[in-house]
Structure formats: structure tokens, C-alpha cells
């Protein structure tokens, strides 16, 4: 094993790219890796990105280092598969993103002034992206918002694009009014026992909630992740309290668990139960 030339390549992108090339070698590679394609690897790419975000949320920096490596491996994986069919390779991926960063930052790599606020730079960035979309023939403000994004994230991106061309409520108050309207329509659909309409109205309500988050400056994905974490903490506390009494949740009832929930909530807030 130690005679393998892979051990003589210095650590860095060339070594990782060679490892992936070897894993995908149709004659001597790993059978699982050889069978993969862009579609089968895409879910792993998404999963690794979420694991990076999770490590950041937990401020687990050693874990983040490992997760970033796993995410980088996904890029190399796609690069190798692209090279095998002649679409692109790792080097062309690196070259393209480097060229893009230089082109989008003329205030750093060109002669444009740096005397701008972060908000000014953000507007310039978006204008640059819009020019790139136009050069690719993308038609319409919503043309290239990725379909594969999580639905909540995609809703916010769609709304931001529409807002740039003036299709937006002026203030959060009007969004709240729309939420009340959509809530009423959802209740009506439920009362009619119409599953298709209930599905549609529920989606409309979620979409408007995402719009409210945008108006309030809240990241809805992050807010929901925090809510999930809070629910997990408090329900786990309920389980602990019941376990101290030798019971499980299914041996309790909603009234008791609600009281334990309120106690866990008060404890988190530093209040007396």
C-alpha cells in the first residue's frame, strides 16, 4: 500500500482529484463509486452542504473542518464525472469560478472605486448576475431560480426577484393582512373537506409567510431550524421528566405533557415554573 504513488502526491487539490480519478477508474476503482452519476450524487452534495451549515450553527469548528472537506469532495466528484464525458473538469471549474469572482469584484481586482457601502456592493453584484443571466438568454426575472432549492428558500428568492422589478407589498402590515386572508381561505377549504384546495391554500399560506420573513429581515430557513431545535430541547426535557418517574410519553397524557412543556419553557427563559 505504501508503494502506491498516491502517497507521494502533496496534499492539496491535485491529490484529491487523483484520488477521485482512481476511485472512478472502470478497471481498478471502487465498484460503488464507478456506478454513480450526477443524479445519484446530487443528494449527497445537498446533504453535505446542510451538514456544513449544522456544524456552523453548533460552532463546532473541528467538525466544520471535516464537513467542508466532505463538501469539497462533492465538487471534485462532479468534476471527475464531468471530465469523463467531456463536459468540464476540476481545473475548468476552478478557472471559471476564479474568473467570475474577479469579474464581479472590479472594486478589488480592477479600477473601480472601493468607496461604496456593503449594500452598494450587493446591488452591483446582483446587477452583474442579471447581466450574466441576460447573456445566457434567460428570459424573465424568475427564469433561473433553481428548482432544486428547498421550497422555503426558493420562495424567498422568487419574491426577491419579483420585488426588484416592483412586484412587492410596500410594508409588512400588508403582508400580515394577506396572511389573515390566506388563513381564512385555508379554514374554508378544510371545512369543505376539499383535500386539493386545502393543499393549495396551505401552500399559499406558507408562501406568504416566507414573504413576511423577507419583509422582517428574517431568514425563514434559519428561523425554522431554530424552532426545530427548540422543540427538540423541550420535548427531550419532557421525556427526561417522565423517565425520572419511570414512564414514557405514551404513558402520560397531553395535559401533563403540556405542563411539563411549560416548565421546560420557563426554565429556558430563566423563570420559575
From TrEMBL:
Skewed-composition ranges (Basic and acidic residues): 112-133, 242-251, 264-273
InterPro entries named in the record: MazG-like_dom, NTP-PPase_MazG-like_C, NTP-PPase_MazG-like_N, NTP_PyrPHydrolase_MazG
GO terms assigned for molecular function: ATP diphosphatase activity
Record has Transmembrane as a keyword: no
This protein's record includes keyword Hydrolase: yes
Residues covered by the NTP pyrophosphohydrolase MazG-like domain: 36-109, 176-234
Gene Ontology biological process terms from the UniProt entry: dATP catabolic process; dGTP catabolic process; dTTP catabolic process; dUTP catabolic process; response to stress; TTP catabolic process; UTP catabolic process
Catalytic activity, reaction form: ATP + H2O = AMP + diphosphate + H(+)
Region (Disordered): 110-133, 242-273
SUPFAM superfamilies for this protein: all-alpha NTP pyrophosphatases (SSF101386)
E.C. designation(s): 3.6.1.8
Keywords in alphabetical order: Hydrolase
UniProt record similarity statement: Belongs to the nucleoside triphosphate pyrophosphohydrolase family.
Annotated protein name in UniProt: Nucleoside triphosphate pyrophosphohydrolase
